[in-house]
Amino acid sequence: MGKWVNLSSMAQDPSEAAKARAVVASLLTVEAVVIAAVGVWLIVLTIKADSFELSPLLGELLFVVLGSAGLAASAAGYRRGKYFGRAPAVLSNLIALGVVSYQVQAGFWLVAIPLAALAIATLVAALRAIPE
């Protein structure tokens, strides 16, 4: 019950709101780097494959650019005290949890567990950083 009280007082305490935004911005930055790294890895795998097709490579490039840039833009918005990145942060992490469910079904626990932890932490932090 005490946590809910703290959430309502966060809007009245600018330092608490700044701390919450900083946490969300940091988590979103980590996610942006992870998406970029996974995208680069996929691009390298595509180029090294025996058969090379341009369409999948373009799709991966689009995934890397839009995904990591979108998360980075959301992080920058949170850092500046803007909340325009809140909806994309929540949506992208709900999508990540959906991806985790497929990884769990495939038994790919090595990636599923860290991705789930990062997505849940970011989702909770984004929902806690309530605008005034």
Could you give the topology of this structure?
Elements: H1 2-10, H2 14-48, H3 54-79, H4 86-105, H5 109-128
Helix pairs in contact: 2-3, 2-5, 3-4, 4-5
Describe the fold and architecture:
The chain is mainly α and 132 residues long. The protein has one domain. It has helices at residues 2-10, 14-48, 54-79, 86-105, 109-128. α2 runs antiparallel to α3, α3 crosses α4 (86-105) and α4 packs antiparallel against α5 (109-128). It is globular. Residues 1-9 have low confidence and may be disordered.
- Tell me which oligomeric state these chains represent: single chain
Number of domains: 1
Average pLDDT taken over every residue: 85
Distance between the termini: 21 Å
Number of strands: 0
| Uncertain residue segments | 1-9
Shape: globular
For the largest beta-sheet, the strand count, sense and barrel status come to:
none
Structural class: mainly alpha
Give the percentage of residues in beta strands.
under 5%
- Note the run of SSEs as H and E: HHHHH
Contiguous helical run count: 5
What is the helix content? Answer: over 70%
Task: Give the C-alpha Rg.
Answer: 17 Å
Task: Summarize the model shown.
The protein is mostly helical and about 130 residues long. It has one domain (about 15-130).
Note the main attributes of this structure.
83% helix; single chain; mainly alpha; disordered N terminus; 132 residues
